[in-house]
Amino acid sequence: MAEPSIKVTFLGGLGEIGRNCAVIEQNGRLVVVDAGLMFPEPNMYGVDIILPDFRWLLERKDKVDGIVLTHGHEDHTGALQYLVRDLNVPIYGSSLTLGFARHRLSESKVGRNLEFIEVSDGERRKIGPFEVEFIPVTHSVPSAMAIAFHTSVGIVVHSGDFKLDLTPIDGRRTDVARLAALGDEGVALLLCDSTNAEEPGFTPSEKSVGGALRRLFLERPNRRMVVACFASHIHRVQQIIDVALEQNRKVALMGRSMEANVKLARKLNLLHVDSADFIDIENVGRYAPGEVCVICTGSQGEPLAALSKLSRGDARNFSVGPEDTIILSSHPIPGNEWSVGRVIDDLHRAGTEVIHSGHEPVHASGHARQGELRTVHQLLRPKNFVPVHGEYRHLRHHADLAASMGLADDHIIICEDGDQVEVTASGIRRAGQVPAGFHYIDGSAGDLDERPLEERRMLAEYGVVQISAGVDAVAGNLAHPVKVTTRGWFEGDHDRGVVEAVTAVVRDALLESLRGGERDSDALAKVAQRAAGRLLGQKYRRQPVLLVAVVVL
Ligand SMILES: [Zn+2]
Ligand SMILES: [Zn+2]
Question: From the CA of 77, how far away is ligand 1's center (Å)?
Fold first, then answer.
């Protein structure tokens, strides 16, 4: 009989922050951990979100026994609505995680027949070939969990996203005692959050943010306080509400997801506030500034979210001005700095005071720094380690940290998206690769592959060149002169010179081809395209999108 082994396939989240998805496999049966999305970079024109490439997984869909969700953030659950179109298996997670996921699924009108299985802290469930254990961890959303798979080669621990917050708002700490016990039982493989692996020390407790907010509020008794944060950050919302109520302010919520998440969290008893403490956003104007606190979405500069609308003055029911203080209780996710900066600028233009994490401690990360990572490595003492959830440099730093804790190099593997590893009693090895490229979603057009995106980049950078010509098939010459028009080009002398050069080179190429006997319009168009493309690329270093039409008369 073959030696027992398990395999892990990484479909996303290794090499980027986002679209987290891993698949753990034993005896040909598969369990999926998370199915997240990623937000596009500014040069991914028209792309709304990026998903893992699920083809490998869907080719094996009859072997999949379930999807387990570590927590409710979109980089872990945002791709579910696409995955479950083709994969109907039970989905496991905490009540809040499933609540967030179901809300998103119902908005996109999929998943009506799905089975959601709520799990509580410390619960063990048989899922496919594994005993799966759900371990509470602290993070920037309540009810986050690490997952322990009890497998034929030992325990595989997936940390999920976590920090070791010893004073969490809800008192629900990371279960370090259980982690230590798992360490004693024998951890064959650790997959661990690397987001803050470059940062020394310990991530401050979420509670520290409450202290900073309280001071800022106290210093501004007569100003209207508007605080933006992630709508899923229920503990942040709780602290903002608590500070506001201490000052006898009423609370107004702004932003669809803020309203929906607050409603869900109150229903699950994870957010504690009385209905009487809320007022509708359209009634804010009836109160003196010092009597109100607004909590809104849009802390990442998302153009359609509440804060951006406030900054531009196009929110329907409420506007901000010199009597407002706006606190961005957040930190820009890499890639969002520019949009956040623009929102902050516009808010200044409206005369408001703006406070952000750059100069006040109004945000704490949800991810473990080196001190916490070392603690987890020490508690679990894994035999093998693969860093997850990070850009490459984060993974590298986390691998170095594991080595510095005494793990031998051949028991640490840095994987990237698409990599597979196999773990046996004797160790870990690379086991292959599966397709794991970016799967782009354009909300208006559906799925995109690289090609249209590349064209959009060319359009953005170099514009369009349209070339047309008419050919006299009998005489073998040009019936209409070559015409070159451009879009996205400057109208200066230099660009006019380029147009003239393209016109000449296309005319010469067409005439030569006609002399050789070519009369087919597609073939002639190709000749024109090649001549223009070569000249533009080699001489002028430009790659515009070329649209060529040659009409044979
Ligand atoms: Zn995450
Ligand atoms: Zn997270």
Answer: 9
